[in-house]
């Protein structure tokens, strides 16, 4: 059985070895940049761990796993443009380092590079694997559309928000686990259980991401703290605060949301004080932990020995107190 560290190394090597056309080097400079600046490689590692549950030899899953990582980074490039984010993983985003047009074009080509990776799947499994990936890819775009729609809405319910992050974030992690299982030649029941495992894990991951944007250390998390507060982004923290706040607290929160001119540091401080008053941090942590427990319950049901699931159990457990 492989460790997470070994699998991350396999993914990194596969990404380094991807070949790009020398004729259009400018197109691929930003691609190489975003793929080389690190990241947790969570999704491809989940793919390989899921495959390794059922097979000791996982070579067939390495390039499809790399394809998932390329696609994930493609979504980040375009998300950063839409969010006007200047920093990703403690480094300038592509549109900041180059320009918006270059970021759009280089982001676009990454989607097709990902497809090339998936075409390396063994022929008998290719259709099933590609359908799982393509379904998730469409859903990710739908999630981003909902996220943009929420920016114009004065009220978003908790259920609406959870569905949005399920589409935007969780389904790709779910598909990663399912694709690994399919390449490992798992049966449909186990593949579905691993999809649910990844989906719940993805929900927990995004809820924690919301939390870290406010309470995380920028030197660890890799993003400027409080960015979501400044832009009035509909995160779980804000949605829950609007649900729980009453009287003067609600009035103060709404004033911050509607202010056209403000001091950034003061706004972040004021909203964080409201979050602390409403116990939002604890509520958010508890919800994330609930999803992690659900993910572990699904993993329990997968029909391989507990020993083979060790690394996936460990990965889920480590997310409970993650700092980045």
Structural class of the secondary structure composition?
Answer: mainly alpha
Strand content: under 5%
Mean pLDDT across the residues is 94
Say what the CATH topology of the domain at 4-199 and 297-321 is. Answer: Farnesyl Diphosphate Synthase
Order of helices and strands: HHHHEEHHHHHHHHHHHH
Radius of gyration from the CA trace?
Answer: 20 Å
Give me the number of helical elements: 16
**Spatial order of the strands forming the largest sheet:** 1-2
Q: Measure the end-to-end span.
A: 26 Å
**Helical content class:** over 70%
CATH architecture of the domain at 4-199 and 297-321: Orthogonal Bundle
Biggest sheet character = 2 strands, antiparallel
Supply the CATH superfamily name of the domain at 4-199 and 297-321.
Answer: Farnesyl Diphosphate Synthase
For the record, the CATH class of the domain at 4-199 and 297-321 is Mainly Alpha
Oligomer: single chain
Unreliable stretches, pLDDT < 50, 5 or more residues?
none
């Amino acid at each position: 059985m492989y460790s997470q560290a070994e699998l991350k190394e396999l993914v990194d090597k596969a990404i380094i070895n991807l070949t790009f056309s020398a004729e259009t080097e400018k197109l691929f400079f930003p691609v190489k940049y975003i793929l080389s600046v690190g990241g947790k490689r969570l999704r491809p590692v989940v793919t390989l761990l899921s495959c390794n549950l059922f097979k000791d030899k996982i070579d067939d899953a390495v390039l499809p796993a790399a394809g998932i990582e390329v696609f994930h980074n493609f979504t980040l490039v375009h998300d950063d443009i839409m969010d006007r984010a200047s920093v990703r993983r403690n480094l300038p985003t592509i549109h900041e380092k180059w320009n918006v047009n270059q970021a759009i074009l280089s982001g676009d080509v990454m989607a097709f590079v990902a497809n090339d990776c998936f075409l390396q799947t063994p022929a008998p499994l290719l259709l099933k694997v590609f359908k799982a990936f393509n379904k998730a890819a469409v859903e990710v775009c739908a999630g981003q559309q909902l996220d943009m729609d929420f920016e114009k809405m004065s009220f978003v319910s908790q259920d609406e928000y959870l569905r949005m992050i399920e589409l935007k974030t969780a389904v790709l992690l779910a598909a990663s686990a399912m694709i690994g299982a399919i390449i490992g030649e798992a049966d449909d029941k186990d593949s579905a259980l691993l999809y649910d495992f990844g989906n719940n894990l993805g929900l927990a991951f995004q809820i924690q991401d919301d939390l870290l944007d406010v309470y995380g250390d920028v030197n660890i998390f890799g993003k400027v703290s409080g960015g979501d507060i400044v832009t009035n982004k509909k995160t779980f923290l804000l949605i829950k605060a609007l649900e729980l706040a009453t009287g003067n607290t609600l009035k103060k929160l709404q004033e911050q949301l509607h202010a056209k001119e403000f001091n950034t540091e003061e706004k972040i401080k004021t909203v964080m004080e409201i979050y602390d008053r409403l116990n939002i941090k604890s509520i958010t942590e508890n919800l994330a932990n609930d999803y992690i427990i659900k993910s572990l319950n699904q993993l329990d049901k997968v029909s391989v020995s507990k020993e083979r699931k060790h690394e996936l159990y460990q990965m889920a457990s480590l997310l409970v107190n993650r700092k980045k």
